[in-house]
Design a protein that fits this description.
The protein is α/β, with parallel strands linked by helices. It has one domain: 3-Layer(aba) Sandwich (Rossmann fold), CATH 3.40.50.150. Helix 4 links the parallel strand 1 and strand 2. The chain contains nine helices and seven strands, in the order αααβαβααββαβααββ.
């Protein structure tokens, strides 16, 4: 049985324990993030939004991909906003990165703003999945891309472990076909999925028309 309190901090890290969990995620998820990003091309001048930026390490990775663009991050935990700003202190000072409080249900940016929106390990926790995907669709530019990268998906091999997460955290939990159906339903096109079954990793790429 996993540590329930620790699991809950994966959903919304808060306080000292939340920061400790976020530090662990910054280290443990690095290979997952890099694997997911291998499946897309990022132009050096892209405007990028990372939804649920957590401890902020993924923002550093994204900033390296677009040295002439800008990376924005939002999180619904004030603690994570503060931590991500600290982790990316120099990038924030140089105006290469901006991190602020925000939720996926009401993204604090205008329509058609971003070339790329990323969601690393956050899709599970969105409160209204269909409407939240529509909100991401809204802030993407035409032909913009949504990249979702998760370390848990429904494939049968990890069900016992994963159902503990699902029941504890009330997570969205889908197989590749279900992911595609939801994204198409909310307006996205050219939906592609890539999996690493031995790790239970999944990457989903969806394009705005």
């Amino acid at each position: 049985m996993a540590d329930v309190d620790k699991l809950k901090h994966c959903k919304k890290p808060m306080g000292y324990e939340g920061r400790e969990v976020a530090r662990e995620m910054n280290e443990r998820h690095f290979d997952l993030w890099k694997w997911g990003l291998e499946h897309i091309s990022i132009n050096p001048d892209y405007l990028v939004l990372d939804v649920g930026c957590g401890g902020g390490k993924a923002i550093q990775i994204l900033a390296d991909f677009c040295p002439y663009g800008k990376v924005h991050g939002i999180d619904y935990s004030e603690e994570m906003v503060s931590m991500a700003q600290e982790v990316n202190n120099e990038l924030v000072k140089n105006n290469h990165v901006e991190i602020k409080y925000g939720t996926v249900s009401s993204i604090p940016y205008s329509d058609n703003t971003f070339d790329l929106v990323t969601a690393f390990e956050t899709y599970y926790f969105w409160p209204d999945l269909e409407n939240d995907l529509k909100e991401i669709y809204r802030v993407l530019k035409p032909e913009g891309v949504l990249l979702i990268v998760n370390e848990v998906y429904k494939n049968g091999n990890f069900d016992e472990r994963n159902m503990e997460y699902v029941n504890t955290l009330d997570m969205h939990y889908h197989n590749p076909k279900e992911h595609k159906e939801i994204l198409v339903k909310t307006g996205f096109t050219s939906v592609e999925t890539y999996t690493k079954p031995e790790n239970n990793w999944i990457t989903i790429i969806a394009k705005k028309q």
